[in-house]
Design a protein that fits this description.
about 190 residues, alpha+beta, 60s Ribosomal Protein L30, Chain: A, 11 strands, about 15% helix, about 30% strand, disordered N terminus, hydrolase, CheD-like_sf, Cytotoxic_necrot_fac-like_cat, Chemorcpt_Glu_NH3ase_CheD
């Protein structure tokens, strides 16, 4: 199962490719997740109330991201849908040889964008953080909540993550871990 450097999971509308063309950016859409060991690939997502859970295996130089948009059920199902999406990413990384016990995690997003009504994003972020604690997966960093959208870029081989808010840049991890882009590519 290691014949290609990138695995696009659950989103057949995105071309995964297997070549190592310089400087590729792949948007991870809502409900999708991607696992990659391609050194030229950057995974991106735009998050409002959605939550991205990102895993990285430094030894194997592989990582993945899931873009969760499922609401936490106020009934008996609770956060089961959120947990299921995280588990699919963890299982995909384990199939690629990354033991669950060495994965490093980051959680980003979960904003309360409209700042009224039920805080769906906050509930998803809470379930994700609880899952990591219950499973004893190392949480390296998190940037959740608030009322502003985020744009993220993750290098799954180097482990670098950049988080930006409209109008300002906040670096969660070293941006040098992300490959340079040419000026013709617009991130935002």
């Amino acid at each position: 199962m290691r014949e290609s450097a990138i695995r696009q999971i659950r989103d057949p509308t995105v071309s995964a490719g297997s070549g190592a063309s310089a400087d590729r950016w792949l948007e991870v859409g809502q409900g999708a997740f991607v696992v990659s060991r391609d050194p030229y690939l950057v995974l991106t997502a735009t998050l409002g109330s959605c939550v991205a859970v990102i895993f990285y295996d430094a030894g194997a130089r592989i990582g993945g991201m899931t873009h969760i948009f499922r609401c936490v059920d106020p009934g008996p199902a609770g956060g089961g849908a959120v947990v299921a999406e995280i588990e699919m990413l963890v299982n995909a990384l384990m199939r690629e040889g990354s033991p669950r016990s060495i994965l490093q995690a980051r959680v980003v997003g979960g904003a309360h964008i409209l700042n009224r009504g039920r805080n769906v994003g906050g509930a998803m972020a809470h379930v994700a953080l609880e899952y990591l604690q219950a499973e004893r997966i190392d949480l390296v960093d998190h940037d959740v909540g608030g009322i502003r959208a985020r744009r993220i870029a993750f290098n799954p081989v180097a482990g670098g993550l950049m988080v930006s808010y409209p109008g300002s840049m906040i670096t969660v991890a070293e941006p040098s871990d992300l490959p340079a882009r040419d000026d013709s590519t617009e991130l935002f």
